[in-house]
Design goal:
Shape: globular
Largest sheet: 11 strands, mixed
Number of strands: 23
Structural class: alpha+beta
Strand content: 15-25%
Radius of gyration: 35 Å
Number of helices: 23
Oligomer: single chain
């Protein structure tokens, strides 16, 4: 019997538990219905809250969508989660391990044949090729395995067909063109499919046109060839004959049920088996999701940019929280009597908190839905604005929706916390009698109001100072220039596709090339350097001055005309001369930079001093050149030695000083270079063009930060206005009494301003402190990966910006103060 009773009791408990669950669902349903009725009842305020939230949530989520599309996921049209990119690290010296990079052809074939965790495993190599026979400019093209378009699937090509497996075995001279190239160079000729065109002077047949944009346009590629055509097209050394040379980028898709870790383990086993064919080699496999964030060479800078962007977005979200909190506080104050009646009728405070939270979450949910418009529209605008070259489709994925849902819930909960608790802090008896607690400047409500104002000022000031620092850094990098001529100097990028093919005499090659370049109309001088300014990083060398410690410095091998061509003055001594021989076993003459003198021999006369390199060579200083700022404009380059060049040691790219039209001169220079070395990849641009390209992405990032800072400041000003309006509405009786007792308009205005100056000043101090701390941390990070100079004592960012923020905050105080001055004393004294 006892067992039966026990069983019956358990069944009853289970039944009651289910009833309690149903009751909870019913209560939640009632709260949601009541929330929607309240939204309709307070339509104007609710609309303001939803619009404010939608703006903040939408902009934040849209920027996150852009970051997600460009840095956190693979640039593919469909199913990015299954996409993988394979990097192989080849090491022959255990003391110097290699870096993750390209894969050899034989290893790719082994992976493709034996890997069970991957499908659609393709490989490609990016090269350049001129369209035509004597074309002066080149374009990026891809040499791909013929199943490439299975990995980047197209529903259908724009015209014709895509590559087929039989195009690679045996190789067929065919090409697939991009729609952009088809329109720009073939005038959108519908009959181009089947025609023969020339690439690098070799005939190939056009078999298809891809639509643009297309995710397979990797790194701005405009054409796709079977990789087996490399020898035919003469686009480089015949790497097909050296299958143990790493030159392929390998990509694929995970099969269902496998993870990237599974794939990496399997490929590592296959790589070890391949290493048996090369006993001196050790291979390691890295499998990424194909995003920029996981690219080995981009991981550090991309992580920094993503971290900065997410930090900015979080501050925008916090400002939105404070803004909405201020708006909801005003509604909560007006509902104190309603809350008192509910409490008097027996409602518990937890139930009322749940009800008020539900209202806020409903408003946040409506804003989240409304913000989807910005989530879908704004990233595409950012993509077209920030990305140069072909763009790819941007669409929100699960990460974006998860982020939007998370910040919507966070904002709804955080913004609703203060209004809910404030609404419950009522004296039921006094409120039902119509009495209203007056909050002057020292109550708890005033303290919370001050926190809201200070927080919004601090957050907006932090963002705007950061944007100011970035913009000032960009101005510093561009205003002063690198310290040498940039607009009238050409630096051709000259790359030998076949490093094994070279002239019998490089000295004769350079001599002939110089004569032909000087014969081009407009060319004034020609120089050579091992590291071209603003394009290459000079090599390093350990040097020692007698009695001093060993120092690592940069060294650039240049021809005597280098300083005249770039307009770099020799401040002391002389420059290099034709009689100065290249540095080797004997003493050679060198020119050093000012920074070199400051750091290596600050209190000595540098002329005549002898330096010894780690290889035993002796360098005699014969001149001091003015500092340049080629790598980080606005800051002097590291200590630099200019050593005599060795014209017979290998290929040096020329540096050409010219006058007149740059476009005319660079075309003629490109023709001369191709005539002297037909197999070389040539791209001719002015130094200023290279500088502008390198700073373009930084500039867009800075402008984006400034825009987000402006949005944050706008929201903060609206929030401050709402907080002060709410505070003044609660002091209407007090203001009426003051006016009745003879207070002047200036007295009322002064009272309002004085009560809000303290939180504004506190917010500015907190914002300045945050900005200084953030700048210090960022400058330490940039020391390891510099791309711009940040000055901790920048007067504009840390002085002008706070003044502008303070002025904007005071303007937000002015309007409610003006309204307070117009209060009718008789109406105010009858207020509630």
């Amino acid at each position: 019997m006892s067992d039966l009773l026990y069983s019956g009791e358990a069944i009853m408990d289970s039944f009651l538990q289910k009833l309690r669950g149903l009751r909870l669902i019913d209560d939640l349903h009632n709260d949601i219905r009541f929330a929607f009725r309240s939204v309709r009842k307070h339509a104007l305020l609710s609309t303001t809250v939803v619009v404010t939230l939608a703006l903040g949530l939408g902009v934040s989520s849209a920027v996150f969508d852009f970051v997600d599309a460009t840095a956190l996921r693979a640039r593919v049209d469909k199913d990015p989660d299954s996409f993988v990119r394979v990097y192989t690290t080849y090491t022959t010296d255990p003391a110097h391990p290699g870096q993750p990079g390209k894969t050899t052809l034989e290893d790719y074939r082994a992976f493709r044949e034996h890997a069970k965790s991957l499908r659609d495993l393709v490989a490609w190599r990016r090269v350049t090729a001129p369209l035509g026979r004597n074309e002066s400019s080149e374009m990026w093209v891809l040499l791909v395995t013929c199943d490439f378009f299975q990995l980047y699937p197209l529903e259908q090509p724009r015209l014709g067909r895509l590559l087929l497996d039989e195009d690679c075995l045996p190789p067929k001279p065919v090409v697939v063109l991009s729609e952009t190239l088809w329109r720009d160079r073939f005038a959108a000729d519908p009959g181009v499919v089947g025609k023969v065109v020339l690439f690098n002077g070799r005939p190939v047949t056009v078999v298809g046109i891809t639509p643009s944009p297309f995710a397979g346009q990797i790194m701005s590629a405009e054409a796709w060839f079977p990789y087996t055509l490399e020898p035919y097209l003469k686009l480089g050394p015949d790497l097909l004959k050296t299958p143990d040379t790493p030159f392929l980028t390998v990509e694929g898709r995970l099969r269902p049920g496998f993870s990237r870790a599974n794939s990496a383990s399997e490929l590592s086993v296959l790589a070890r088996e391949q290493d048996r064919l090369h006993p001196s080699r050790t291979s390691a496999i890295t499998v990424t999701n194909g995003s920029m964030l996981e690219e080995p060479e981009w991981h550090s800078p991309v992580s920094l940019v993503v971290g900065l962007t997410m930090g900015v977005l979080m501050f925008v979200v916090l400002i939105v929280c404070a803004n909405v909190t201020a708006l909801l506080l005003s509604r909560g104050d007006a509902r104190r009597q309603e809350v008192a009646i509910r409490l008097a009728l027996g409602a518990t405070r937890p139930v009322l908190v749940r009800m008020l939270f539900t209202e806020t979450l409903v408003l946040a949910s409506l804003a989240g839905v409304a913000s989807l418009f910005l989530v879908y529209k704004l990233p595409g605008i950012l993509m077209n604005w920030l990305i140069t070259g072909p763009v790819w489709p941007v669409y929100p994925d699960w990460r974006v929706f998860a982020y939007l849902a998370a910040i919507t819930l966070f904002v709804g909960a955080l913004a609703g916390l203060a209004p809910a608790t404030e609404s419950l802090r009522v004296n039921v008896a006094d409120t039902l009698k119509g009495k209203r607690k007056l909050l002057g400047g020292n109550g708890k409500g005033s303290s919370f109001r001050d926190v809201l104002i200070a927080g919004q000022v601090a957050a907006s000031l932090f963002l705007l100072v950061g944007a100011g620092l970035f913009l000032r850094a960009h101005h510093q990098m561009t205003a002063g220039g690198p310290g040498y001529e940039t607009r009238q100097v050409l630096i051709p990028s000259l790359f030998l596709r076949d490093p094994h093919a070279f002239p019998k005499s490089w000295r004769a090659f350079h001599s002939t090339l110089t004569q032909q370049l000087q014969a081009v109309p407009g060319v004034q001088s020609v120089a050579y350097a091992s590291a071209q300014p603003s394009y290459d990083e000079p090599g390093t060398e350990n040097v020692q001055l007698a009695g001093k410690a060993i120092r690592q410095v940069h060294i650039n091998e240049v021809s005597p005309e280098f300083f005249v061509t770039l307009d770099i003055p020799i401040l002391r001594g002389r420059g290099l001369e034709e009689t100065d021989s290249a540095c080797g076993g004997t003493v050679c003459h060198v020119v050093v930079s000012e920074e070199f003198v400051k750091e290596v021999m600050p209190s000595e006369d540098p002329l005549g001093k002898t330096l010894r390199t780690s290889k035993g060579a002796l360098l005699e200083v014969v001149g001091v050149a003015r500092d340049t700022s080629s790598s980080l404009h606005g800051h002097a380059d590291s200590p630099l030695i200019y050593a005599p060049w060795a014209p017979d040691a290998g290929l040096y790219a020329p540096i050409v000083r010219f006058s007149g039209d740059a476009a005319v001169v660079w075309r003629a220079v490109a023709v001369v270079l191709r005539e002297n070395y037909p197999g070389a990849y040539v791209e001719v641009r002015t130094i200023q063009s290279w500088i502008d390209s390198s700073l373009n992405g930084v500039w867009h990032l800075e402008v984006l930060t400034a825009i987000l800072g402006g949005v944050a400041l706008t929201l903060a000003i609206i929030g401050i206005y709402g907080v002060i309006s709410f505070a003044i509405s609660r002091r209407t009786q007090e203001i009426g009494v003051r006016i009745t007792l003879g207070a002047r308009d200036s007295d009322i205005y002064g009272t309002v301003i004085k009560s809000n100056v303290r939180p504004i000043i506190a917010g500015m101090i907190a914002g300045e402190s945050l900005a200084l701390t953030g700048q210090w941390i960022l400058s330490r990070v940039l020391e390891r990966n510099p791309f711009m100079p940040l000055r901790s004592n920048d007067p504009v960012a840390f002085t002008v910006v706070p003044i502008l923020v303070a002025a904007a905050a005071l303007v937000a105080c002015y309007v409610p103060a003006r309204r307070a001055m117009r209060v009718d004393p008789m109406v105010a004294l009858r207020y509630e």
